[in-house]
Amino acid sequence: MKNMISRRNFLAAAGVVAAAGVLTACGGSSSTAASTASAAGSTAAAASGDTIKVGVMGPLSGNVSVYGQAVVNGATLYLKQVNANGGINGKQIEILTEDEQGDATQAVNCFTKMVDEGMTALIGDVTTTPTLAVAAESADYNMPMVTASATAEAVTYDAETDTVNANVFRATFTDPFQGIKMADYAYQKLGYTKAAVIFKKGADYNEGLAENFVNEFESLGGTIVDQESYSEGDVDFKTQLTTILGKDPETVFCPNYYEEVGQILSQAESVGLTVPFLGGDGWDGLEGYATNDQLKDTYFCANYAKGSNPEFEDAYKAEYGQEYPNGFAPLGYDAAKTVVYGLQAAEDAGLEAGTDDYKQAVIDAIASGTIDGITGTFTFDEHHDPVKQTAILTYVDGKPVLKEMF
Question: Record keywords: Signal included (predicted)?
């Protein structure tokens, strides 16, 4: 039987230390389709009036704001649609939005602020390290929490202690899942038997995908001819790419974020390394950062393929005046759907928002539920990870298109 992790044990397992005391105040906003009144205590605030307070957190500024804005916009779009359709049993959702600036300590401060404001459930965080910090903090409150996009296994499950983080779920697939899936695709579907890997060291996302790709590819009978790494802030990858070129791979797995991937593909071309590259969902947004030739025969996995849900895409454009920017927006939408699914169960049970029973009812409903999302219909496994297919995308005329579901 899985154990519920304590905050102290979570911090130790994740290697995250939250600073004590009050630091820089979070920048955020509160919005709702109905008027709201302020309240003193967390439970009282959560239950006041005819609203249900839901937190939405992400890096709305800083280096990874392209992901945070997409998640927050996607989540907010769905919550507004729920309000426009009458809310949850007549109650409107009040959206508490916070910018954690891509920083783990700031993320914990934002979480605490929203708890004080009466948050009943959280959609967030977005990237892995801040999400680990918030998940650790949330355990003390048993706060229902659904991250749209944090992929590190430890967000929901500590494999070393076989412990599930009972209040935390995710709408995206995990780092191990992505690495394994792309190794399977490379070997089984594309027929590659020799691969190299280049990844950023010291980053949970990049290292997680790389390690699992290597292990799976070798278990299938393939050969990893070289593994190269680089450090945060590096912009010159030619030494690593030249070394890879000398090992004669058939493909290169590059589990990094799109801006660095664009630089790597350009420099690979310059040193004569022209084999196809493969990647994970961090490639989402790569178009414009690499040429058509550099993107030829490349593949990456993602949760969502453009054009698969025109209703969502049209609604996003109508709300924000632009097309959805990347696959993180659909994931934000589905994370919000997941939270609302749980809230509906708690409201149907007639429980008081903000109470322990209410939060547990939200968690129990999500754990046993089926979410009809736009990234697929999914349930949750025993580790609170979604069970769903993966979209494999390739590039045609410099734009990502769905190759197949795999």
Answer: yes
For 106-164, the DSSP string reads HHHHHHHHHHHTT-SEEE---SHHHHHHHHHHHHTTT--EEESS---GGGTEETTTTEE
3-172+308-387 belongs to CATH 3.30.70.20? no
CATH of domain 175-302: 3.40.50.2300
pLDDT tens digit sequence for 143-152: 999 999 998 8
Query: Helix 204-219 vs helix 128-139: angle between axes, to the nearest 10 degrees?
Result: 100
Mean pLDDT across 148-161: 93
Q: How many CB atoms lie within 10 A of CB 351?
A: 18
> Which pTM value belongs to this model?
0.78
Taking the CA atoms of 207, 212, 217 and 219 in sequence, report the sign of the dihedral they define. Answer: positive
DSSP label of 62: S
Cβ atoms 261, 282 nearer than 8 A: yes
Tally: H helices and E strands in the chain: 13, 19
Q: How many angstroms separate the Cα of 191 from the Cα of each of 112, 186, 188, 211, 316?
A: 50, 6, 6, 20, 38
| pLDDT tens, position by position, 208-261 | 999 999 999 999 999 999 999 999 999 999 999 999 999 999 999 999 999 999
Degrees to nearest 5, angle at CA 405 with 254 and 393: 40
Domain with CATH 3.40.50.2300 in the chain: 3-172+308-387, 175-302
Query: Using an 8 Å Cβ cutoff, are 391 and 182 in contact?
Result: no
